[in-house]
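Summary for the steering committee. The consortium agreed at its last meeting that each partner would contribute one worked example illustrating the joint modelling workflow. Our contribution is presented below. We chose a case with several input lines so that the handling of multiple components could be demonstrated. No manual editing was applied between input and output; the record is shown as generated.
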Amino acid sequence: MAPRQDLPGGFEQLVMLAVTRLGDAAYGMTVRTELESRTGRKISLGAVYSTLDRLEAKGYVSSKQSAGGAEREGRAKRFFRVTAPGLRALNEGIAALDRMREGISTIPHPARVT
Amino acid sequence: MISPLNRALTEFLPDKYREEIVGDLIEQSLSTRQMMIELLVTVAALLPMQFRQSEDDDMKHAKWIAAAAILVVGILQAWDSGILAAPPLIGTMVAVAIVIGIVGLFIANDAVRLAIAALVFILLFTARIVSPVRLPELTLVGLPIFLILVLGPRFMALAKEKNRPPGPGTVA
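What follows is the complete predicted structure of the assembly.
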């Protein structure tokens, strides 16, 4: 049996989904904005960076620094992207969540809600 | 432009992401006050990251030895100062000073570590002042903590540099 990966937690899954949605434009501020607009909750930049750092340590995301423009007074940007193992773990996590809520009438699956 | 106070706050961000976080906040065109609030929240949220610094086993080993040294020397010096005759509140303040000194060892950020070293001295000095029992040597408890927190990382970095194998371009 192949060793099982550590499943990403709830907020980790949200951050990985935001990074995936943003594609090549995923850096701290855009990830935060994407999370805030889609979850409707206020999220601190520290929480975003802290989670991205943890995901990078697990090998679920990779990052690359790039030079910043005048709008950032030349400060560098760090772009993130979800790695192949990260994508696998994210899919496993979401699938596990789906299996867990299967048959619970009070938490219906969004695809089956009419 | 960042105000001097906000610039000082950025020193408490982890070295790894300081540049990027400050850039992100500048990009938002926040007012000085808004940026200060954002920085305070961000610094607080990233404090746990300060403990997750990547370091080799030798460095971790050295830090645990230093932590044990702070604990033993701190307790001995506090006992020698006559802390047992002081009220429990004074004993608690000294214990907190020793504990936060040990916690400071595992923080990578220089500014946070220096702030902790200063806090240790403030706590010990306050304990000495408010104590109804005379404890003239109590601040000495903070001396090894201060030395290890301020000079320890520099010595460790120097030792690491000295033990590093020569690179391909190094002349023997």
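Residues 57-80 of chain B form the longest helix (24 residues). Chain B touches chain A at residues 1, 16-17, 19-28, 38, 41-46, 48-49, 52 (CB under 8 Å).
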